[in-house]
Design goal:
Layout: H1 5-26, H2 29-44, H3 54-76, H4 98-105, H5 110-118, H6 121-132, H7 137-144, H8 148-189, H9 192-198, E1 199-207, H10 209-217, E2 229-231, H11 233-240, E3 248-252, E4 255-260, E5 268-275, E6 278-285, H12 288-293, E7 296-298
Parallel strand pairs: 1-6
Antiparallel strand pairs: 1-2, 3-4, 3-7, 4-5, 5-6
């Protein structure tokens, strides 16, 4: 039997757990997969003959990889492209593999993700490992490079911020529904100025290829064409004026959005990212496979 085969079998038995740990720390499915793959590379290069608890060893490795990734993200002031978007949740009709399923089951709510992004990397790691995976602070301490007491304080600070975000989330959710409602009303009436009022000056509109093709097929004579990406409030307002009129309010993975569902069958979805009372990003999704993975609730 090849040297790595028993290790590979044990690693695969712990993969879903490791993906869950990494996803909750990083908030990004793609980065979580990268972190778990890095853990396998380190395992394959290490002598683990004296390791009694391989699951614990791998959890520690993944946590350290995630901590490095979080620190690198903070230093570059970056965020992963898929962290802020509503996570696609598989419907009962979708066929997914177990690794994808665990990420969907552990999908972070938008409110929690925003709060976690505001934590320091060490606070985030301490909070996730202790409060979500019940690791003792004696084991967390060497991962974050602190004493057990300091690690406890990190988790405590993070916990207070997460708990304090609940009320703010409720108010934010209501405000976002109001903003999306104002957008829909302006689009239905073709009120260009009202659309401009709800859009951030630097708003970005991104449409997938299926949405671009659908818009072209329904294009009115003389109407502006829908492009895969548009930037700036005037361009976005001109493109969407009247275009979203047939949509209806919906919750998309728990976040306020719009869905065009003729005959009750979703054909297109609008997801919105808001900040400072304005829409800063709109994603128009019409790809059937992507739509099937969204958790859509028409309101």
């Amino acid at each position: 039997m090849p040297r790595h085969e028993p290790l590979a079998q044990e690693f695969e038995g712990n993969r879903t757990h490791l993906l869950s740990v990494a996803h909750r720390m990083l908030g990004s499915p793609s980065e979580a997969d990268d972190a778990v793959q890095e853990a396998w590379l380190r395992l394959s290069r290490s002598d683990t003959s004296d390791v009694e608890n391989l699951r614990g060893w791998l959890t520690t490795v993944v946590a350290r990889v995630c901590l490095d990734m979080l620190r690198s993200r903070k230093s570059r002031r970056e965020e992963p492209l898929d962290a802020r978007l509503p996570e696609p949740i598989a419907s009962s009709e979708a066929v997914i593999n177990p690794e994808h399923e665990v990420l969907m089951a552990d999908s972070l709510g938008v409110a929690l993700l925003v709060v976690l992004e505001a934590l320091t990397p060490a606070e985030r790691v301490a909070f996730v490992l202790h409060d979500m995976f019940d690791l003792p602070f004696d084991e967390i301490a060497p991962i974050v490079g602190r004493s057990p007491t300091a690690a406890r304080q990190l988790a405590s600070r993070a916990r207070r911020r997460v708990q304090g975000a609940d009320t703010a989330h409720d108010a934010d959710h209501t405000r976002r529904r109001e903003i999306v409602g104002a957008f829909l009303a302006a689009s239905r009436s073709g009120d260009f100025e009202a659309l401009l009022a709800v859009l951030d000056p630097d708003v970005v509109l991104r449409a997938d290829r299926a949405a671009v093709r659908m818009a072209a097929a329904r294009q009115a004579v003389g109407a502006p064409r829908l492009a895969p990406e548009l930037r700036g409030a005037p361009a976005v307002a001109e493109s969407l004026s009247g275009r979203a009129g047939a949509a209806q309010p919906a919750l998309i993975n728990g976040a306020p959005g719009l869905v065009w569902a003729p005959g009750g069958k979703p054909r297109a979805a609008f997801t919105f990212t808001t900040a400072r009372g304005k829409i800063i990003r709109i994603d128009l999704i019409a790809d059937p496979e992507h739509l099937r993975r969204l958790d859509l609730t028409l309101l």
